[in-house]
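User: I'm putting together notes for a lab meeting next week and I want to include a structural view of one of the chains we've been expressing. I don't have a solved structure, so I'd like a prediction I can at least talk through. The sequence is below, exactly as it appears in our construct file.
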Amino acid sequence: MKKIGLVFILIPFFAQADLSASSYYKCIKDNVVKYSKTNESADSIASAAVTSCGSVLGEVLKSSTQFMNASAEAKSKFIADMKAQGKEAGIKYAMDEKLKN
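Assistant: Thanks for the context. Below is the predicted structure for the 101-residue chain, given as structure tokens.
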């Protein structure tokens, strides 16, 4: 039930920060392309890309009044979810890059 409530709280965040969220995923993709030149695993590449884009994620979050007004627990959960989703996207981007080469 908590997850459903969190979804309804975060829906306005996604609507407001859609362009910013897309800049976060673009940052991840750009870093994956850069790191894919190494022989690291897709998981390692995705992790490095997510870490490299931490400042972009911070800007996305600062631009959302809903996020800024959320409880500390909701903020922590949302940040963890964004990083996990970023890593999943990063793994897919890394695998796509490996197929290109």
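A couple of points you could mention at the meeting. Helices lie at 2-16, 18-35, 42-52, 54-62, 65-68, 72-100. The two ends are 45 Å apart (CA to CA).

User: Perfect, that's what I needed.
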